[in-house]
Design a protein that fits this description.
The complex is a heterotrimer.
Chain A: E1 9-20, E2 26-33, E3 46-51, E4 55-60, E5 71-76, H1 80-86, E6 93-100, E7 113-119, H2 123-135, E8 143-149, H3 158-167, E9 169-174, E10 184-185, H4 188-195, E11 202-207, H5 210-222, E12 230-233, E13 249-250, E14 253-254, E15 261-263, H6 264-267
Helix pairs in contact in A: 4-5
Chain B: E1 2-6, H1 10-15, E2 21-28, E3 31-36, H2 55-58, E4 62-71, E5 75-80, E6 88-93, H3 95-108, H4 115-122, E7 124-129, E8 156-160, E9 164-169, H5 172-179, H6 190-205, H7 217-222, H8 229-233, H9 242-246, E10 253-262, E11 265-273, H10 294-313, H11 323-327, H12 334-342
Parallel strand pairs in B: 2-6, 6-7, 7-8
Antiparallel strand pairs in B: 1-9, 2-3, 4-5, 4-11, 8-9, 10-11
Chain C: H1 4-16, E1 23-28, E2 35-40, H2 43-46, H3 61-72, E3 81-85, H4 87-98, E4 107-112, H5 122-128, E5 134-139, E6 144-149, E7 152-157, H6 158-161, H7 164-167, E8 179-181, H8 197-200, H9 204-216, H10 223-227, H11 251-256, H12 267-280, H13 290-294, H14 301-316
Parallel strand pairs in C: 1-3, 3-4, 4-8
Antiparallel strand pairs in C: 1-2, 5-6, 6-7
The chains are: A alpha/beta, B alpha/beta, C alpha/beta.
């Protein structure tokens, strides 16, 4: 049973944090495997979370690989499985199988400046690679985060962002004017153009709604970034998570297995069908 | 190992295989499909082809992955349900359907091996039957590197010589089956071998339909993603699932939880076939659908079979069985579509 | 006899005059004698039009596609679509009109009379030819079909290979049409529901095992649903819970949707799917026979739907698809409706 790729390993929810409330709530879950196993992941990988009786959902692991006590998933309530997750309490049991996906090629980025650009829940996959870089700070150049959401209430990891500002450059934004908001007002791509990150010896990682990614890539190219310097994650409907059910393919790639991390140089050559 | 088996001795051989589950094509009303055989004398090998390929036996339309239920200790209990241990023999497998299984093998192995598929695959022995005449007017196996007497993927190939079968055993498993009933078989004579070669040569001449220059097609398709070609070809498609469900090489599936009781929780996680032609196949939870119309779905089917699969495994994901052509409710003809692809733009 | 040149002339005329966007008709397939649906946009395409006993399809189904396509376009072309229909097919158009799914000026109906025969059943044809391939089938003098094979031409009495529904035909020519080809020959059947008798005469247990055996064959390809012009619901009872979702549908709404039928092709699920579909077609099915024709597993679906058609007739004296102004069965009542179940 241990080697059966379709059988989830049981894990207990040990902590739940409400990141964002309202009509599009986001909660962070920290989970701990019930039975000891050798689960280990690279930043940018995801896992299939099972709510037995409802189904499975592929969620990116937002904790860094250096954290051994728990796995963290930050989940937006969207449909049947995620609604069931949001209704769970500490102590409830879920299933986890994985890790799946190619992860970020962070070893190739040693010595480079890293610019992270996220929108809304898109900060979750970025969080794991950002913390991996922070965990080996001396291996990387300057670190910058440009992150925005609809309103200040929709920003995730709010408390951690305050700490992060002390360690690296952080630029936040909200879409529209808000009382008490002193930082940039506008969409994330506009903030990118405003803050002008330098393409010299840099890699960018961008995650968020597809429309945001489209305009962020345009803004980065206008600033002189090459296609090979721009990385993003793609999402698609997934069921097996291991490249067999045939559902998530873009061209010959299965996003669950060969992705979800792609450089723009790779992605622009694939059929634009995602 | 090569042997001769008279038609009279055929059921004697089958009787010696009682430790195996025996599958053979059976006709119900006018429909041929594989069924488990209880009476060896009832096996008829003089048949066209089944509606559902032997893929159904190795990769059934529904299978249980695991059972789950609420438990007092850890809150939840999950139990793996593997396929039962029962070796099987399938008689009457057409060579195209056997090649199809070698193609789906590529998908189910790799970094993550599928235990359910392989449990059944490894315990099933395939006995093929040469197509002396094409089973269907729409057969085109020769165009996709197959043949009516191909041995690829089979453990034994039987060829009908009239009153007897020429038996060619191709694997250890095939040899084992023959050794279980040594006295049923005779040694082939020189004339038998000559008859065999003649039948095999003739069988190829009878395949009427073909796709010319099929090797040009993967490259051609690469440049056709954004063309209006697919809108036109998919006009009459009604979005059912016949072409993909009947196809011996298609493998898409769905995984669902079927709940028998919600409190206390008890249910099964089940795999079922799924279909890239269904509108909700790629639909995200948010409602966004990367393939929102039948044009993009038909394009996915053709590109997957004749470009993406070639890029991944160097084989077309099609064996030329012709089922999709014969059974399409609106007569969409994959050979015609591919001819048009090859000539597109010229 | 219907002359296909007359149909072609009319098709060219309405295309040239811009009266229709395109015409849905029949053309020859590339792999045999059966016709396939054709979408004719230009006078050159018109040359491909055919009319012969292989024109089995009910093309009305494509009017549903057309409506969906128009709904997605910003400035749709409001001209009607030309469509070639037989008597049975035209009843489907009338049901769509009865239900106000389409308007009369959305279609330009080229009606064709089946005169004294009808269309063939592909399975009966292939049985008749004993494995030989038919290259062409044509209408011949009264009540014969002329079949051309590699060995030459033979004449076969039409009744031997007619589609089952043609033997019980109640609408030999489209009563609703903009132009009619062929003669209005009355071919009303005296016993329109005779084919049901052999199942109705079975005991309850035998009927259950008959239907269990048949429906266990079902692979849930949904061809029967996809080909039916009356199955036009945006979201069907079998669709997944995430179907018909917009950006505004909340997560709770999606989570609370009930999964009525599992995807598994188990006996219980297959029964629910087919019986619910039959009930949803009660008083709407016009017996075009397409569901049974397309089924790859040869399930006799016509019996299910025809039984509902018979119930509608016997209980409520209701005939679907003859009068466009008649309301649908389930949306009206008459004082004479049976009340014996009210105690």
């Amino acid at each position: 049973m241990d080697h059966n790729v379709y059988i989830p390993k049981l894990a207990k929810i040990i902590e739940i944090k409400e990141e964002v409330g309202g009509s599009r709530p986001i909660k962070s879950f920290r989970t701990h495997f019930i039975n000891k196993n050798d689960f280990s992941h690279r930043c940018g990988q995801s896992a299939m979370i099972s709510v037995l009786g409802k189904g499975e959902s592929m969620i990116s692991i937002s904790s860094s690989p250096f954290v051994k006590d728990y796995l963290q998933f930050s989940i937006l309530k969207m449909g049947r499985v995620t609604t069931a997750l949001h209704e769970m309490q500490v102590g409830n049991v879920i299933g986890i199988r994985g890790p799946y996906g190619n992860g970020f090629p962070i070893e190739e980025w040693k010595g480079k400046n890293l610019v992270f650009i996220g929108g809304g829940i898109g900060l979750a996959p970025i969080w794991s690679v950002l913390n991996t870089a922070l965990g080996k700070r001396e291996d990387y150049g300057d670190l910058m985060l440009i992150y925005g959401a609809r309103t200040s209430k929709d920003l995730v990891f709010n408390d951690e962002l305050k700490d992060l500002k002390k360690k690296i450059t952080v630029f936040l934004s909200v879409d529209v004017e808000e009382e008490g908001w002193k930082e940039f007002v506008g969409f994330v791509p506009q903030n990118v153009t405003d803050k002008k990150p330098s393409p010299k010896n840099s890699i960018t990682v961008t995650c968020g709604p597809p429309i945001m990614i489209k305009f962020v890539i345009k803004a980065l190219k206008d600033l002189g970034f090459e296609d090979e310097q721009i990385y993003t994650t793609v999402e698609n409907k997934m069921k097996c998570g291991i490249g067999k059910c045939g559902r998530c393919n873009i061209g010959k790639h299965y996003v669950c297995k060969d992705g979800p991390v792609y450089s723009w140089a790779q992605l622009k050559n694939l059929p634009q069908e995602y | 190992m090569e042997k001769i088996l008279t038609k009279k001795s055929f059921s004697k051989w089958v009787k010696k295989l009682e430790s195996y589950k025996i599958y053979a094509p059976v006709k119900n009303d006018d429909l041929w499909n594989y069924e488990i055989i209880d009476i060896p004398e009832s096996i008829q090998l003089d048949y066209p082809n089944t509606v559902l390929s032997p893929k159904t036996i190795i990769f059934p339309q529904r299978e249980i992955f695991l059972e789950f239920k609420a438990s007092n200790e850890e809150g939840l209990e999950v139990k793996e349900i593997l396929p039962e241990e029962k070796p099987a023999v399938i008689f009457g497998v057409r060579p195209c359907d056997a090649i199809a299984l070698t193609l789906t093998d590529n998908v189910f192995k790799g970094d993550f091996e599928d235990p359910y598929y392989w449990k059944r695959r490894n315990q099933t022995i395939l006995i093929g039957l040469t197509c002396n005449i094409p089973p269907s007017f729409d057969c085109f196996c020769l165009s996709v590197d197959g043949s009516p007497h191909s041995k690829d993927g089979l453990d034994i190939l039987m060829t009908d010589l009239g009153d007897k079968y020429y038996i060619e055993s191709l694997t250890k498993k095939g040899n084992q089956l023959i050794n279980l009933a040594k006295d049923c078989f005779e040694e082939p004579k020189v004339t038998d071998k000559k008859d065999l070669e003649e039948i095999h040569a003739n069988s190829e001449k009878q395949i009427k339909r073909q796709i010319k220059d099929i090797k040009k097609i993967p490259k051609k398709l690469k440049g056709m993603f954004d063309t209006p070609f697919w809108d036109k070809e998919s006009l009459s498609c009604i979005q059912c699932g016949i072409c993909t469900y009947l196809c011996p090489t298609c493998h898409c599936f769905d995984i669902n939880d079927e709940v028998a009781s919600s409190a206390p929780l008890k249910g099964k996680r089940v795999r079922t076939w799924d279909n890239c032609q269904f509108p909700d196949f790629t639909m995200h939870s948010s409602g966004h659908n990367p393939r929102p119309d039948k044009s993009s779905r038909l394009r996915q089917r053709i590109l997957h079979k004749f470009q993406y699969f070639v890029e991944l495994y160097e084989n077309f994901q099609c064996v030329g069985c012709g089922r999709c052509i014969s059974k399409c409710p609106v007569g969409i003809d994959i050979i015609e579509v591919l001819d048009k692809v090859r000539d597109y733009g010229s | 006899m219907v002359n296909v040149e007359d149909i072609k002339k009319e098709a060219i005329r309405i295309l040239k005059e811009g009266k229709v966007k395109y015409i849905i008709g029949y053309k020859k397939s590339t792999n045999g004698s059966m016709s396939v649906p054709a979408f004719i946009e230009s006078s050159e395409d018109v040359e491909n039009l055919i009319w012969d006993p292989t024109c089995v399809y009910n093309l009305t189904r494509f009017l549903v596609d057309e409506k969906r396509r128009k709904a997605r376009e910003k400035n749709p072309d409001e001209r009607p679509v030309g469509i070639i229909v037989k008597g049975c097919d035209s009843r489907a158009i009338i049901v769509l009109l009865q239900e106000k799914f389409i308007n009369r000026d959305d279609v330009y109906i080229l009606g064709i009379s089946c005169e004294t025969t009808g269309v063939l059943d592909e399975k009966k044809l292939s049985k008749k030819l004993n494995g030989k391939k038919a290259e062409k089938v044509e209408y011949d003098e009264k009540n014969n079909f002329a079949i051309t094979t590699a060995d030459g031409k033979i004449k076969v009495p039409a009744d031997e290979i007619l589609a089952e529904r043609c033997l019980e035909c109640r609408a030999n020519f489209p009563a609703i049409n903009d132009v009619l080809f062929g003669e209005k020959v009355e071919r009303k059947s005296d016993k329109p529901f005779e084919s049901l008798e052999k199942i109705e005469s079975l005991s309850k247990e035998k009927r259950w095992s008959f239907w269990k055996e048949q429906l266990d064959k079902c692979i849930r390809c949904y061809a029967c649903r996809s080909v039916c012009p009356m199955c036009y619901c945006d979201e069907c009872v079998v669709d997944t819970i995430n179907f018909a979702v917009t950006a505004d549908t909340t997560a709770e709404e999606k989570a609370q949707r009930i999964k009525w039928v599992e995807k598994s092709p188990a006996t219980s699920e297959n029964f629910v799917y087919h019986l619910v579909r039959a009930i949803h077609l009660a008083g709407r099915c016009i017996d075009c026979g397409e569901c049974e024709r397309v089924c790859p597993m040869d399930i006799p679906l016509r019996f299910l739907n025809k039984k509902m058609e018979k119930e509608a007739k016997e209980l409520f004296d209701y005939d679907a698809g003859f009068d466009p102004d008649q309301p649908s069965l389930v949306s009206c009542f008459k004082d004479e409706d049976p009340e014996d179940f009210i105690r």
